[in-house]
């Protein structure tokens, strides 16, 4: 049985190239702010999103190791860019190119995370990201142990980057 209450429909949604999807979370990934573009494409109201885990919009096609990389990076104060397939309230999906950064209070204490998402380059999604994510997900799904699967996907991702001789950031920014 799937952990997802809503099953993917296979229908893709799109947002305008000039639109920017914005959200903020606390340090545990609970949503504290969404803009109207986020709510419109995801199909949720602000009340449904406030306090909900950001993973609410996680699509099951997304390799968990990509989120591990994302969380590991931002938790230590770094920023990350990533291509992400999100799922709407009814199971449709939409691709984004996300930029996630930590947020700090006036004393310099990290208090949460901020994400801006733009329309991704379709060629990059179709020709590079979808095949890599499929390989990572296959590696993750080869074991019943979710954590071991995620680590297998992470090892595959770092191996691909090592073979290319680039860091994750270099890889993403040279696509």
Task: Tag the structure with descriptive keywords.
alpha+beta; single chain; 5-stranded antiparallel β-sheet; about 180 residues
Strand percentage: 15-25%
Tally of DSSP β-strands: 5
The overall pLDDT, averaged over residues, is: 94
Spatial extent as radius of gyration: 16 Å
Which overall shape is indicated by the principal axes computed on the Cα atoms? globular
Strand order of the largest sheet: 2-1-5-4-3
- Low-confidence parts, pLDDT < 50 over ≥5 residues? none
Helix fraction? 25-40%
Q: List the total number of helices.
A: 6
Instruction: Tell me the major beta sheet.
Output: 5 strands, antiparallel
How far apart are the termini? 36 Å
Helix-strand string = EEHHHEEEHHH
Structural class: alpha+beta
């Amino acid at each position: 049985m799937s952990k997802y209450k809503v099953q993917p429909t296979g229908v893709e949604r799109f947002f305008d190239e000039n639109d920017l999807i914005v959200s903020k979370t606390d340090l545990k990934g609970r949503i504290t702010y969404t803009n109207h573009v986020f709510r419109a494409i995801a199909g949720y109201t602000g009340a449904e999103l406030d306090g909900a885990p950001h993973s609410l919009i996680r699509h099951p096609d997304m390799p968990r190791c990509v989120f591990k990389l994302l969380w590991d990076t931002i938790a230590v104060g770094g920023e990350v860019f990533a291509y992400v397939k999100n799922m709407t309230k009814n199971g449709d999906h939409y691709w984004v190119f996300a930029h996630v950064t930590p947020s700090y209070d006036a004393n310099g204490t990290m208090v949460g995370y901020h994400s801006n998402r733009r329309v991704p380059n379709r060629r990059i999604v179709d020709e590079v990201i979808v095949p890599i994510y499929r390989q990572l997900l296959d590696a993750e799904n080869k074991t019943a142990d979710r954590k071991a699967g995620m680590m297998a996907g992470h090892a595959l991702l770092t191996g691909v980057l090592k073979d290319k001789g680039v860091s994750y950031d270099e890889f993403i920014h040279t696509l």
